Protein 1
Amino acid sequence: MDFVALLTAFGVGSLVTAVIQFWLSDRATAKKRIHDERKEAYIGLLESWVMYESGQSNKQGEYTVGHWLLRSQLVASEATLLLLDKWEQTEPGSSDRIRATKSLKAAMRLDLCSQ
């Protein structure tokens, strides 16, 4: 066997392996970043919603809920985004809001578990 051909074959194989490993690593990093962004936004929204609903801070609470709602809308999946819009359109404390919140929490759970 020709030494140069053998060396070339191993060199190309190593290069292909390195490219595939880089691609897989980059993909895993991107998925983790998306998961972390969603987790932070969803938890922030739910915590601010609880504080607002409990009446701890009215004007500031409204601002905080709006802030986390917008952040959640930026990172949410399509299904969760639709439920966020539905949730936003309901009246706080109403039975529609309670149902929308239940559906929204289930969709958020799916978003966070599917990563």
Note: The mean pLDDT is 86.
Protein 2
Amino acid sequence: MSDQKTRYEISADELNNRMERQQKYHEQPIQRAVAVLEAALDSVMKKLGVDVDQDPENVQMQMDDLGIDVRSIDDPSMPKACGFYVFLHKNGDIIPHSWVGDARLDQMGQCWCDIQVFNDDRLIESGGIKIFGS
């Protein structure tokens, strides 16, 4: 057998290099953007009295006890916008509390999430971390 490679074969070093680039330029930025989105949603939950540092089952129990409902935009009953809606259930009524938008990049390469608090009529930017590079 010859040591010649066909055009469909790559060396172990090339494969390793491609996997490192995939991690650096694709997977890490996505993980950082998701962390910004989760932090924005956590900040809304904290203001509503949820201890978000607990395990997911306890967080869900707290949300149920406080009457908090988080719905994603995939819900067909929701208006079309990217992100999550937070509702409060009080006295049989469903009250819209806030909207947490999807993570977005600004011109400086920093990742942000918008939080719209309906009853206060204010928009908060959360995040501001660089997701590309170190």
Note: The mean pLDDT is 84.
Protein 3
Amino acid sequence: MTLLEKKRFIIDKVETCFSDEVISKLNDDVSHLKPWDETEEGKDLINRLLEKSQEQVRNGEVISFDEAMSKIRNKLALK
């Protein structure tokens, strides 16, 4: 299920649901979501990216900011 399908599913459920309890629970769940970088998966991703970056620096695989931006522009066809 794609993110758009998940969003549509949730919206459909809220629109067709008349239970205050369900709507309150959904609201509480959404209100108390942690930012992605505070979840275990987010912390793990950050740590893996840092390790990869440190390894690249140790191996001398560094490029300038301008080179990085140029690669990104080319990759996204933003010339």
Note: Residues 40-58 form the longest helix (19 residues).
Protein 4
Amino acid sequence: MASVVLTNAEKQARWRAKRAAERKARPEVIEGELIAAAGSSKDLSEEERRELADRLADAAMGHLRRSQQLAALARLLRFP
């Protein structure tokens, strides 16, 4: 089985793509993109606005669940 040898440029390109994908998956980046899309929602079709609204609602629910988990942990610390 022959091994594939990558050039430095190919390795760098792969690394940059991986870094960009990881950055794009971060919650604050996703939230920023959703907020920016909501700001320009006048240019969206009805279906695109509904999809964006669903994505915003999902993000909000994720924040709510996380805040409830943190609040429960805080209560455990205050009242053991």
Note: Residues 44 and 50 are 10 Å apart (CA to CA).
